[in-house]
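Most newcomers find our protein records easier to grasp once they have seen one. Sequence and backbone structure share a record, each on its own labelled line. Nothing more is needed to start thinking about how sequence determines fold. As an example, a complete record with its sequence and its structure tokens follows.
=====
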Amino acid sequence: MDASLLNKLHTRSEAGHPLRVGLIGAGKFGTMYLSQAHRVQGLHVAGVADLSKERIREAFLCAEWPEEQTDARDMDLAIKTGATWQTEDSMALIRADEIEVIIEATGDPIVGARHAMAAIYHGKHIVMVNVEADVLVGPLLAQNAEKAGVVYSLAYGDQPALICELIDWARMNGFEVVCAGKGNKFLPAYHASTPDTVWDYYGFTPEQIEKGGFNPILFNSFLDGTKAAIEMAAVANATGLKPQPHGLGFPPGGIDDIPNICRPETDGGILSHSGTVEVVSSLHRDGRPVERDLRWGVYITFSAPSEYVQRCFGEYGVQTDSTGQYGLLYRPIHFVGLELNVSVLRAGLNGEATGCPTGFLGDIVTIAKRDLAAGEVLDGEGGYLVYGALRPAADGLKTGHLPIGLAHGMRLARPVAAGRPVRWSDIMYEATDPIIKLRRNMEKMFSDKPQYIPKIMPLPS
């Protein structure tokens, strides 16, 4: 498959018609993508958009982008010279006729949703690095993309797309997927972590923080469990796996433990049911490191459908549980933006997604980190006041939970106790805001049938 993509790319390059890409967001993920993209013949990153041109310049410098290819003053010059247009106007990049694939890598759920809607409207394939936006309104974005004849895709290199790949492998070969997920550093106390305490938990020195340019809000989102929950919701919505009623348990376990842990309770595991998602912690509850942890990797557990297949597991060294019934397939690491081009090429050349929402099964509810008073303004993912927790979408729809993607800048109308979910009825919001309308309409459509993809919503002009 990869050779075919490269052959197609080579053919286009020889014809003077490279695959042209626009990148929105020149942060860490975007920089990692750029560091590899200029090494692929036949691919032209024709434009990079970011609110800060200085950040774009820093990204090019880190990515060792050829200096002569960074100075295009507009898209016309970029096309003529093969250089890259730097702009603060993301919508202008999306509107450019020459661009075929848009990469949304801002990390902002509201901005990301707007970019995705605009890309679909203008006939561009969209690679959604922005998982926050995907779990907020992705099921509708994906359907609108299908109607428009373009691809809406999760980002290869990020863990959700890699998990989807493992799930596809299992299902194509006739295996039932019992559980899918990833590793993560987690302890229950981390749910209360704030940007002020996050470095204590990570153990970074001030010198490391300064040199690495680490963002405490981003790191805190990974630590307090929000990012893991978001990624598992994306997996659930793309694959049909159903989250457990309690969401994620973050059980400690390494590669040798996962087949025993991530199997149903009825067979000695911790899962409420087969066909779900779970994140395994690289720390025991007392803080000791787990042996052979999967902190940077992804996995699936799957069951042997017959005694013969179970025997084959043993004959060929498949990592299994104590009974030999449940097997494990895992990938120990992921390359993040360094391998994003898999999504770009599959979307742009083959019209394929590396993971795409097919339903609305998982949602991220907003949970108070401490007692919150009426009048306080929520600070969203990775902040001081709330964290995001995975729940079955049907449960959140029934109880009116506020999704974490909309929890930034919302003022509380009434107090919320620590550990309790924030609901729509607890906040003041502008019902006419386009993204809020999109989300509320999606909730209404899925309220009775959370696994059902409704009719496609018209895109805004």
Observations:
- The radius of gyration is 22 Å.
